[in-house]
Amino acid sequence: MRPELDVIAQKIKHDPVFFAEKLLNFNPTPYQVKLLRDPSKRISARWCRQSGKTTTFGIKILHFAITQPNVTILVIAPSLRQSRIVREKMEPLINAIPRPIRRLIFKKIRREAVWFRNGSVVKFYPNSPDLIRGETADMIYVDEAAMFRDARYMFNHVLKHMLATTERKGHGYLYVSSTPKNMRSMFYEMCRPESGFSHHHVTWREAVKTGLISHEWVEDMRKQLLPIEFRMELEAEFVEDADSWLPYDLISSCIDPLLEPYSLEDRLSGEFYMGVDLGKHVDYSVVAVVKREGAKLKLVHLHRFPLKTPYSNVIGYIKALCQNYHQIEAVYVDQTGIGEYIVEDMHKRGIPAVKGITLTLQKKEAIMTYLKQKMLNRQVAIPHDNRLIAELNIERFEVTSDGKIRFSHPAGTHDDMLWAFALAIYATKDTAGRLLIL
Length: 438
Prior knowledge:
This protein is of the alpha/beta class. About 40% of the residues lie in helices and about 20% in strands.
């Protein structure tokens, strides 16, 4: 190798920023440079939305895999779908490498893993101890760590042991990143000064300054999001959710990393229950389907219709689900403000076991209490769906003067997915297949 090429090769090996600029044709921002050059074995990052967090860790992972032979890197996310999103974010970085060089670097590129000719490999996993147990890792990147189910067990009893062997040879890197949620998560502890993690915090201000996002986009988000959501998503701040009926730690405990929702066209057999929340001009119509598997209630289908969708279209969709999902044991429909006619229309069109429910204060309390108890008992499983998670957490409650619980959601937000899901769970209490107005 010519001396000048040897100098370049050595600089690529030892400087991930130079690696990004010369090999990936990527010019990192100042805060990306800071993280890329951070040599710490423990790094936590809470960056605002659209600030380039996943891309930055993708560069750090590729640099380590390419410059260190025979290393194993694990990318772990709350769900299989989320881990694949990280994989997809790395695709442009891989493709930016000139083709002749790319052929010399990569052996095989698949959705589940990337193999390198130097013996290194990057594997993508959901948050499932059973799937990853037994692996030995030189580096682990955990994405959306604040939403990990059983995070304490995962980090202390699974990931820690995977890194133990490689730490003795100078590796054993653990990187965690997430949009911050509440202050009871393990991710919050990892961002504390006493945690031993090198911490990186980026808000919308730094991202605007570097041009990754515009000030106009931030102001648009400020109008769309609640103040508490804006603090989490754009300020990257931890918040308390003491007045939320379903706090983030309870929701995350119910996320099934392997649960992939079914489509309308899937033809299935099992024991299904459906919840329907009807809206039109202001609120959305939503259909949720839960499948009972033993003691577990799994959310297997969730569909939100566009605003102003005619009820006839919603009913047609429900009928198609009933035809394809065998069998639907009960369909619970929120008829509040609409009347019994919509339930009677469904019954006439052959939809089985339709039950109309008027959401009085007392009935809401019964439904939401049942949902929360099932979640506390670990009898509910949901996919990692950011929109659903936000709606579950956004529902507020207060105790009235006569001891009843009143539920509400802040102005400008929606809870249609929550109520469709809650109705589907509540439907599992009673499987009688008759028309019933509650």
